[in-house]
Design goal:
single chain, mainly beta, SH3 type barrels, Sm_dom_euk/arc, ribonucleoprotein, Sm, Small nuclear ribonucleoprotein (SnRNP)-like protein
Length: 71
């Protein structure tokens, strides 16, 4: 994937992603939504075995805390 950040997020919708945060933690789930501030919404996913901290419920992460998002 390449392009503008929001275009990359658009392509990653409904796919499993890992979101790395400033505090060093990472959260794994399906990208359910995002906005122009890079606030992201993660949903639990059925993918097994790749999980840093797999989300157990709908999770909203404030964009100020996001370092990277890997699809």
């Amino acid at each position: 994937m390449s392009g503008r950040p929001l275009d990359v997020l658009e392509e990653a919708l409904d796919t499993p992603v890992t979101v790395h945060l400033k505090d060093g933690t990472a959260h794994f789930g399906a990208l359910a939504g995002y906005d122009q501030h890079m606030n992201v919404v993660l949903e639990p996913t059925d993918v097994e075995g790749e999980t840093p901290d797999e989300v157990e419920d709908t999770t909203i992460i404030r964009g100020d805390n996001v370092v990277s998002i890997n699809a």
